[in-house]
Write a structure and sequence with these properties.
Blueprint (H helix, E strand, L loop, with lengths): L1 E4 L12 H9 L5 H5 L5 E4 L15 E16 L2 E9 L4 E6 L4 H10 L5 E11 L2 E11 L4 H4 L2 E4 L8 H14 L9 H6 L5 H9 L4 H32 L10 H9 L6 H14 L6 E6 L5 H14 L3 E5 L3 H15 L6 E4 L5 H13 L4 E4 L13 E7 L6 H8 L6 E6 L5 H7 L4 E5 L10 E6 L3 H13 L3 E5 L14 H12 L5 E4 L5 H13 L4 E4 L12 E7 L6 H8 L10 E6 L5 H12 L3 H12 L24 H17 L20 E4 L5
Parallel strand pairs: 9-14, 9-15, 10-12, 10-13, 11-12, 13-14, 16-21, 17-19, 17-20, 18-19, 20-21
Antiparallel strand pairs: 1-22, 2-8, 3-4, 3-6, 4-5, 6-7
Helix pairs in contact: 7-8, 8-22, 9-11, 10-11, 20-21
Length: 692
């Protein structure tokens, strides 16, 4: 017996050669633990016999014992092709070996002579009144009962991997470490009717029935969710354990800004400001997630909360993932906060050495109240006199370690993270269960719902004509494309080519600009400044304008090849218009051959502008691992669990984790490194075999 590290490279498993190692890597499998949690996407139930005659009523699937009645030969493109005529107790079926050369055809004719009995399983279809075996697996009758009287897992594949070879590899990995120690307490497993870890893995990879396979997946899913919820609950306890004295903050500056605004705060904004003030004055640091749809006024709520700290002589750091978004916040802060006497600074990696040093000195001396910047605020030389408040915008674009480096620059600063991509409640509870959540659902008064129209690519000219009318009214327009420049491998419009076409052919004489990720930060800033001021009326762009762009005079958003964008991106892009009092429009121009999934996305965009409903639909369509705003450094990169389908299981796991930590708050979350899911760490398996 030995301890077998589940982080051992997968190449140490019997049957994994160089090519298989490469193919497994394409599936995200690098270690034995990752191999063991490569969950089947489906199962083929061969536990019951299904004769040929019943195949058409069983989704085309059959599993039977047949005799080769005779051979038949025919020619396809000059190649002699072998056909086996098979007979079981119910019907005849035909099986052809297409694409073989003469030597291979002779080989198969000898290997499968008339009169040979075969165990055969696969799928069949009727063609010209005859049953044709389309996909099949066959062996001489009785030689491999484990293949024809069982439930076979069907795995996601890559490269040259085949189901048969991958099953052998996973079986070898399991046999090399036949015993897995389970960290989930036995009483929790019993209460949830869950299998121990070893039994769960066996049930998933070698089930006796479909019910057993489902029980195995459910047990592994609970394990993933439980380990994640333990970590989330532990973080929440640590935050609440950081006790400080309660303190009162003067709202004088806050009230001064509210009175100066040319509009009224929405009910949701007022509620969120109140929730944050209560947190800030409480006896443990605030950790709050502020969710709101695009254009709902989250940034203003953050500014109002920051003013509490400014009034008290403490500092605020506001961080955004891109310089474009950070500058947008800085411009808004200058417009709203500088008249109140707030001392502001902008800080990014592009800040030159000559300007950087005095900025660092002022920050350290406390001569700056609010600093707004990018990831450059993480830098070691950035020091604060008294950092009291940290605001992270578009928080999903930063890793946990990065954020912690900023938090460490203050003594238990209050933390606000903002998401412009609404996160479904299920996922917010999963990934951000250690945070309190504030929601802004109501939009500012005077905003009109954006009209969304779907247009076939062939009808793009009508869209251009509509935009021409809007331009004639003095408004502005975005045109967004999936590519920066022409790509011969992809028959798609690109921003560079269309910029020239928009400027010279479609709207001659109308000032146009081009922006994409390859431009330097200063160039992007200058282009956006010209668009904001109206010097540029048409902006050709990529999805770089998805966040951080606020131009109230822009009333048209045209997204070409909209079928190539995800729901979250489409919603964010649409949110760039409708930010003023004028009626705004979004046109989703799509190719006629777009897929069923793309069709669902575009239909949802047409039906609703509610970002929370769109987020729920995106979750159903794509799963949590692909959703912008929820990946959280691998937190929701599940292998067995699936949300929202496993919502109840997640709630059960959360309840179990909280119960354990209430009894022992100092307990660390159990971890098992190889069986990855929800960011779990190292572990080992006891078994027999050659030491790695």
């Amino acid at each position: 017996m030995y301890l077998y590290d589940l982080q051992t490279p997968v190449r140490r498993v019997r049957g994994v050669g160089p090519q298989a190692e490469k193919d497994l890597a394409r599936l995200g499998i690098h270690t034995i633990g990752e191999l063991l949690t490569h969950i089947p996407r489906d199962y083929e139930d061969r536990s019951k016999r299904v004769p040929f005659a019943a195949a058409t009523g069983n989704g085309g699937r059959f599993n039977t014992t047949a005799i080769i009645d005779c051979h038949d030969f025919f020619y396809v493109r000059g190649k002699k092709t072998l056909k086996l005529v098979l007979r079981d107790e119910s019907a005849l079926a035909e099986l052809s070996f297409f694409g073989r050369d003469e030597r291979a055809t002779a080989h198969y004719a000898n290997k499968y002579p008339p009169g040979l009995r075969l165990d055969i399983a696969g799928t069949a279809a009727l063609s010209y009144g005859k049953l044709q075996c389309v996909k099949f697996e066959m062996e001489p009758a009785g030689t491999h009962p484990e293949l024809f009287s069982c439930v076979l897992p069907v795995y996601p594949l890559a490269g040259s991997l085949a189901q048969k070879s991958l099953r052998k590899i996973i079986r070898a990995a399991y046999e090399q470490g036949s015993h897995l120690e389970d960290e989930i307490p036995a009483d929790i497993r019993g209460a949830g009717n869950l299998l121990p870890l070893s039994a769960a893995l066996k049930a998933v990879h070698d089930p006796a029935s479909l019910d057993e396979a489902a029980a195995g997946r459910r047990s592994l899913a609970f394990r993933e969710l439980f380990l994640m919820q333990m970590e989330v609950a532990r973080r929440a306890l640590q935050r609440k354990a950081a006790v400080r004295s309660t303190r009162a903050y003067s709202p004088a500056l806050q009230e001064k800004l509210i009175k100066a605004l040319p509009f009224q705060l929405t009910a949701d904004q007022k509620k969120c400001v109140g929730e944050m003030r209560a947190d800030i004055e409480a006896d443990h640091p605030m950790s709050r997630l502020l969710q709101g749809d695009v254009g709902s006024g989250k940034t203003l709520v953050a500014f109002l909360s920051a003013l509490l700290f400014t009034q008290a002589g403490r500092q605020t750091a506001i961080m955004a993932p891109t310089e474009l978004l950070a500058r947008q916040h800085a411009d808004n802060a200058a417009r709203l906060l500088q008249p109140l006497g707030v001392r502001l600074a902008f800080f990014s990696g592009a800040l030159s050495g000559r300007a950087r040093k005095p900025a660092l000195q002022a920050l350290k001396a406390g001569d700056i109240d609010i600093v707004i910047g990018t990831h450059a605020l993480f830098s070691d030389d950035v020091e604060f006199r008294d950092l009291g408040f940290v605001v992270i915008d578009e928080q999903h674009r930063f890793g946990v370690i990065q954020r912690n480096r900023l938090f460490a620059k203050g003594l238990y600063p209050d933390i606000l993270v903002m998401s412009a991509t609404p996160i479904p409640q299920t996922l917010a509870l999963s990934a951000f269960g250690d945070m309190d959540v504030s929601l802004i659902k109501t939009m500012p008064e005077g905003r009109k719902p954006i009209e969304t129209h779907l247009a076939l690519e062939a009808n793009a000219r009508k869209v251009y004509e509509f935009v021409r009318v809007e331009l004639g009214r003095g408004h502005q327009a975005y045109f967004v494309y999936p590519l920066i420049e022409e790509n011969q491998a992809a028959d798609l419009k690109d921003a560079q080519s269309m910029y020239h076409k928009l400027q010279n052919e479609i709207y001659p004489g109308v000032p146009a600009g081009l922006i994409h990720s390859r431009l330097g930060e200063e160039e992007k800033r200058a282009i956006m400044a010209d668009f904001s001021s109206g010097k540029i009326r048409i902006l050709a762009a990529t999805s770089v304008v998805e966040v951080g762009v606020d131009v109230p005079n822009a009333t048209c958003m045209v997204i070409e090849h909209a079928e190539r964008f995800g729901l979250a991106a489409l919603h964010q892009l649409r949110g760039r218009v409708g930010r003023g009092a004028q009626q705004s429009y979004a046109f989703l121009v799509y190719a006629p051959e777009y897929t069923g999934l793309a069709q669902k996305r575009l239909t949802i965009m047409k039906e609703t502008t509610d970002g929370f409903r769109i987020a729920e639909e995106d979750l159903l369509l794509r799963g949590p691992g692909d959703l912008s705003g929820v990946r959280q450094a691998g937190l929701l990169d599940f292998r067995a669990a699936s949300l929202p389908g496993d919502t109840q299981l997640m709630l059960d796991a959360r309840k179990a984790a909280n119960a354990i930590l209430e009894k022992d708050p100092g307990l660390n979350a159990p971890r098992h490194a190889g069986l990855r899911g929800a960011g779990t760490a190292a572990g080992a398996v006891s078994g027999a075999g050659d030491a790695p």
